[in-house]
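Predict the assembly for these two chains.
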Amino acid sequence: MSAEPPRYRRLADELAQLIHGGTLRPGDRLPSVRQTQASRGCSAATVFQAYHLLEARGLIRAAERSGYFVAPPAAPVTLPARDPQPVAVSELVFQLLGTGGHEVHAPLGSAFPSPELFPFDKLRSALAAGSRRLVPAELTQQLPGGHEGLRRQIALRYLRLGMSITPDEIVLTDGALEGLNLSLQLLTRPGDAVLIESPGFYAALQALERLGLRAVEVPTDPATGADLDAMAALIARHAPTACWLMTSFQNPLGGLMPADKKCALVELLERHAIPLIEDDVYAELQHDGPPPLPAKAYSTQGGVLHAGSFAKTLAPGWRVGWVAAGRFAPALRRAKLSQSLSGSWPAQAAIAHYLEGGDHERHLRSLRRALAAQQRALRAAVLQHFPAGTRVTQPQGGYFLWVELPAGHDSLVLHHAALKEGISLAPGPLFSAEGGFRHCLRLNSGQPWTPALAAAVERLGELIRLQAG
Amino acid sequence: MSAEPPRYRRLADELAQLIHGGTLRPGDRLPSVRQTQASRGCSAATVFQAYHLLEARGLIRAAERSGYFVAPPAAPVTLPARDPQPVAVSELVFQLLGTGGHEVHAPLGSAFPSPELFPFDKLRSALAAGSRRLVPAELTQQLPGGHEGLRRQIALRYLRLGMSITPDEIVLTDGALEGLNLSLQLLTRPGDAVLIESPGFYAALQALERLGLRAVEVPTDPATGADLDAMAALIARHAPTACWLMTSFQNPLGGLMPADKKCALVELLERHAIPLIEDDVYAELQHDGPPPLPAKAYSTQGGVLHAGSFAKTLAPGWRVGWVAAGRFAPALRRAKLSQSLSGSWPAQAAIAHYLEGGDHERHLRSLRRALAAQQRALRAAVLQHFPAGTRVTQPQGGYFLWVELPAGHDSLVLHHAALKEGISLAPGPLFSAEGGFRHCLRLNSGQPWTPALAAAVERLGELIRLQAG
């Protein structure tokens, strides 16, 4: 493991400094890849990676066939590109998640799949059945950790994957989100550095901001997840105290870290005694099969806190999630007790009852089929209606597409224009503390495909072309 | 308002320094009240107040008819008596709240009233009815703030008290506890000083500890709540950034701050722009009538965050609470979104449905009657079986009794001895960051009065007498 960041990163940082210092100014052309390759004595791949990183940060733009140019300053959301840096994105996130009073008919910016995909009738009867079994005394006696029957059902689901997790290791939380937040708070002190993905889930950025932590952004590949060489270098440089990642069907990219890479990730982190908060709420939504093994499966030292949820697969709004917290389980159980005592009993009891019923696998199969079909339809429409040069991911699970528009487009401007027409989207800068990804956006393929949605995608394409004009 | 703390406090601090510095040693006799009165030129009342404060801190003990002596060091839980001080009680709280593997048949240390007091049949049908009205799309659209119908019902309950609170000002949280924690986090930065009661609710101490805040403990009268003169002096000295109090049926003392004092409290805090986090979860449990007005009713600047809950009055374990957050409502709504998105929909919908049904007042009347009768029975048993010199509060609401044992008794030792016999209690040191109140304990009168409970109180009395021997 090198104490230095990888070469492309150093090259990118050097060029970024020239841009921030004003040596390179908006509109200036960067040296060509071949020139830089020669002058630096490095490979073309290194130069391309560096330029791609700068592009991702919104600092430079590729102009087709004519090279790379320094981008104009990113007006409404200039965030300083320090590294690691205190996080200040909450305000932006809340602004962009709001609808500004517009009625949204095409929720392509939503973080949720359509509620129509869930078995509400079965949930209703589970609620009635679960409530009949409510024993008043249980309510206050079984508090630590949450509903025992549900923790057992979750442990059984781990067992199907070949993982031995006891109900005692599981702490039920109000959705995975509370579990992730409590885990992060447990593991850090204000001012600490924390490894996160770039682009990554905005709620992680908000959590870092609220706790006064510094974000160490790890470059993340759209297909295979966080770059482990970069991570090793960042560990050596910044001594982070925790790492928060999504290893399967990452939000927003949709990438699935291959099994051997998950294993290497855990090995790297455990070697440095850095706990991993593994946000794994999309794992059950692998389109063509059962969930991939999480990184936690490769942990030997109990250092992985694995967070899951029923919010994306079964019962959105019920706020039933969990953390299998490894050696941190006793501390996390206490953190949960102090923060909000326990999860809500009726929802926990109902989901336990539903899982005991054995219908969940059938529901998951039909949900996965629906999500796969919807993704194909949305992806095809984007490729048809968006300008040439647009790149779209093709995740094997979950319900997000990550769209990179050709240089010169601005997803923040697009967001505001689209919202006026009732179309939402999630602009790229939501997903980074450094404010990059201006030419990127996340689209939600969790909505049933309808002519109205098709028309909305076509209209988005028109709005993007208007931008270029 | 004086910049100095009150005279008795200065005298107590001075004597405490002599004790901590070793000038006064365990067993040493303190100057008599008359001597001190003469040497300091102050009133006997001032000396008594100072000695009482030192006794409450566990530093001195009164020996009947022979004066005050320096107490032996408080072995297992010596916490330094700095002022204000970082908080480190969580470990103690969790130890003492646990049952150490013993089966508890007399839960006199519990924080909850007996679940048997709640209308579970009605709650079950409300759950079924509420779930039938679940509209899938609502689950993700009405998120900010929580279930709209429930917020309206809560606003209507404020209106009965003559308070105009809009549903928009209300943020639903997972019990009051999450709301209190999120409020505190919103209003403070690590290292800030926060005013709390002494003795006070241990969850507040835990929250301060988790957030790295310093506790400024305000002496609190068992009958009328926090001492406002002391508070004014502490504000001048420590510039606290928030205040967290229970103004009605305070935990653990049971005191009810009179209306004019609540008014003066708000005036004092708003004059210094210090937000008040008003934990008011027992207000509905006034034994002989409707809830007293909260301090928030006297606020003119929106600086009071008023937290309530259905956990103590209707549905323990369902985790449905709220904060009417005044001018902090938008910020708190965002904090809740970032921390755990929303409360659990089924519980919120069911309680909204139940409240619309109009049976709640009748249930509350019968609950209040039961709590009043149970308190009378428990109080009489304590006075009968505990040693002479025992003092017991007589709260007008809630379900806690605060018991002061005669000098020489130790509630921590008693706690461990009683737990072995299946009797729990809440020892005094749970309720202070300074580790005082060793001779005090909190008993729960929320349990139906039974011969078994009566026998448990009698046995507690025996254990106390054994201690003295």
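Residues 120-360 of chain A form a domain with the Aspartate Aminotransferase; domain 2 fold (CATH 3.40.640.10). Chain A touches chain B through 54 residues (CB under 8 Å).
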